[in-house]
Amino acid sequence: MSHRVTVVYHSRHGTVRALAALAAEGARQAGAEVRLLRVTDDEPAGHRWPEPEAVPEDVLWADGLVLACPTYYGNVSSPFKRFLESTSPLWQRGLLADRVATALTVSTQRHGGREATLTALHHTLYHWGCWVAGSDPADPVTRAAGGTPYGLAADNRQGEPASHERAAARALGHRLATLTARSRARFLVSPAPAALPEHGPHRSAVEGPTDDAAADVPAATGQADAGAPRAALPRDASRPVRLAVVHHGEEAAVRVLAQEIAAAARAVGARVRLRRVPGGSGAASAAWLGPAAAPATVADIAWADAVVFGAPVRLGAPAAPLLDFVQALEPAEGGRGPLWGKAAGGFAVAAARHAGCETALLHLGHMLLHGGAVLVPPGYTDPSVKAAGGNPYGTSHCRCEGSLPTPQTLAAAAHQGRRTALAGDLLRRAPRSSRTVRAGSADAGTGPVRLVIRSRGRSTA
Predict the structure, then answer these.
(1) Looking at domain 4-183, which of 3.40.50.360, 3.40.50.150, 3.40.50.620, 3.10.450.50 is its CATH number?
(2) pTM for this structure?
(3) What are the tens digits of pLDDT across the range 14-24?
């Protein structure tokens, strides 16, 4: 059985529909089984398209998604927003997570809100727990179509997209389907412990080995994660998956979160490099946590299959030294940088609950898409996320709750570490063939596979 892609569009004048159909064509060329569907419209023009009407269950059918709608006042069109909101019962049951998804939009004005619409669609996908893939920034057709890495942004041409936009739509669908083929058949569920023991979080924050020789030796995770069911990573014949955890800031909260993410990934079999970005953070040093991690380099990111970045929040964005480091990863024009095609995410520490815990992670996500990364947010894929404050964009801690992360936040960080490592392991592999591969079989990699599989509903074709 081939991987499945659903392309859902809202179109009144035909341009979005034409681009959605081209994205569907690109996905088919990558071997996907595709459904091209429309959302219902209030206006008569919206009823002339022949495609079937989308229903929430079409999201369940899919392994990958393309969301396509026009830009209205810098945001998603209302009929398309109603469709997204109609999926709420499925979201509440945790059935929408771990699909690879992308987006496209059209507007009359070149800078009339296209990027805002694409990123608004991303926000919904983060809440669902999807992996967010943009267009390929290294592909010449992406640059010819305007260069946005967030998806596809096109001119409203009354149903007749330009040739460069048509090529970009096909390429977007093809990339989405290729990534979907890598991710299908195993779903990332690694439950948090049923009860969180009371303890000082610093007791669980063990820096662990950072040298290359020792970095793949599993280390014990923190007590906040004790007793949690673990999803063991399948190892191929060559090596385990590699995760780089890169943080800026010497304050205890940042270091503890970085250490917890690293330890949880090691516990499921990942090889981990814990690295720091030097520079003043304005916070007291936490030398009592042990020696600081080695300075991060571009080589560390190139080495990794997946990356998690973290920093204090400054003026609603990650602190400048981390931004400088991520900007240094930007590939040369026409090339692929060290983030390309890799699972990535972030965590943040802010002064107050609503002082940038969300915006800093969204800002970081935009930067990572410019590098060609695939964003793997926590969404609401584990009870620990809601227990820690419910940030679907990444783990966050505010100092108003104390200088150290709470046990709930540590559990959320551990979940993010496991989840990112699992995603990185899938994305680094060649796409699966259409035949089913059983977990634990010889074709699934060496060693036992103990992944917890989430069952998903399937609607009839």
Answers:
(1) 3.40.50.360
(2) 0.83
(3) 999 999 999 99
